[in-house]
């Protein structure tokens, strides 16, 4: 296991994150969530809770505009991970995305951002009622490898129709036509994973300009031609949230009761790119 120093440059030279980079990522701890560093690993913990949102997260993009997010292809991300349960409640995962749902107007020194069309390549878990399939006949729930690519639309133009679509999905006859319309803007590819979440596995994702390949324990699980548009940020998280985005119901989100604490443990994290 490498103990080389972590370094990052956004100017185009080779970047490598090694084991020590876990401590350089920014922590987000909400609703009693904790990020706990141990000698060679990190534990992301959310507490038992019957109300309120809880999140434990590491990322490398908070405070940046989306145009400043660090990562472009080609890129290879790998790590070892396990959760405290085979079927946790809420969501967890690790990979790359553009933080599309964040809304910040610059308060408290944060970057100014409007919601954006989603771009992602990650290992993602969502318990019921979570569903991110958008009606595209792909797994939208459970433990999966997943990519999302949306048309590049300026956030200032996207926000008003997105808000309108959110409201119109409350009307049952309009749901399926709206989801078909959304499917024309956002493409999703995903495959369910049979690997138990509470057992250590090695996960690897190779993001190219025209494809994304996912491996678990060295086995190719998915090679998708739906590659997200750059730039993206690294995120590792566990929370008690769900997002329902499927034609059978209106667009909705909420939080789930977690009767016990839930943990995602990460080690051997490496990100390499020549871009």
What does it look like?
There is one protein chain. The protein is 9% helix and 40% strand. It contains two helices and 19 strands. It has helices spanning 155-168, 172-183; strands at residues 15-17, 26-30, 34-37, 42-46, 55-59, 75-83, 91-97, 104-105, 112-113, 120-126, 142-150, 186-192, 201-207, 212-216, 219-224, 233-239, 241-244, 252-255, 262-273. The strands form four sheets. Strands 1, 3, 4, 6, 13, 14, 15 and 19 form an eight-stranded antiparallel sheet that branches. A hairpin with a 4-residue loop joins strand 3 (34-37) and strand 4.
Task: Considering the chains and any ligands shown, give keywords for the structure.
Jelly Rolls, 275 residues, globular, 40% strand, mainly beta
The CATH architecture comes to Sandwich
First-to-last CA distance: 24 Å
Tally the beta strands. 19
* Contiguous runs where pLDDT drops below 50 for at least 5 residues: 1-16, 103-110
SSE order, as H and E?
EEEEEEEEEEEHHEEEEEEEE
Radius of gyration computed on alpha carbons: 18 Å
Number of separate helices: 2
If you consult CATH, what is the topology? Jelly Rolls
Multimerization state? single chain
Portion of residues within helices: under 10%
């Amino acid at each position: 296991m490498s103990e080389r120093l972590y370094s990052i440059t956004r100017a185009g030279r080779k970047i490598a994150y090694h084991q020590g980079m876990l401590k350089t990522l920014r922590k987000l701890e909400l609703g009693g969530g904790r990020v706990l560093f141990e000698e060679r690993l990190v534990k992301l913990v959310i507490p038992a809770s019957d109300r309120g949102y809880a999140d434990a997260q590491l990322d490398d993009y908070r405070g940046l505009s989306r145009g400043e997010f660090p990562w472009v292809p080609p890129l290879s991300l790998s790590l070892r991970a396990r959760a405290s349960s085979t079927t946790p409640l809420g969501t967890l995962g690790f990979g790359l995305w553009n933080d599309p749902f964040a809304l910040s107007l610059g308060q408290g020194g944060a970057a100014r951002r409007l919601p954006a069309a989603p771009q992602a390549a990650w290992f993602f878990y969502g318990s019921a009622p979570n569903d991110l399939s958008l009606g595209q006949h792909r797994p939208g729930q459970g433990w999966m490898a997943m990519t999302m690519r949306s048309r590049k639309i300026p956030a200032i133009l996207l926000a008003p129709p997105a808000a309108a679509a959110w409201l119109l999905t409350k009307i049952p006859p309009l749901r399926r036509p709206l989801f078909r319309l959304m499917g024309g803007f956002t493409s999703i590819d995903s495959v369910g994973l049979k690997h138990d979440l509470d057992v250590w596995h090695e996960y690897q994702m190779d993001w190219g300009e025209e494809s994304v390949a996912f491996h678990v324990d060295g086995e190719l699980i998915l090679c998708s031609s739906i590659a997200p548009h750059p730039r993206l940020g690294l995120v590792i998280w566990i929370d008690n949230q769900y997002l329902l985005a499927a034609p059978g119901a209106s667009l909705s989100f909420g939080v789930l009761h977690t009767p016990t604490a839930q943990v995602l443990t990460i080690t051997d994290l490496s990100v390499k790119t020549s871009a």
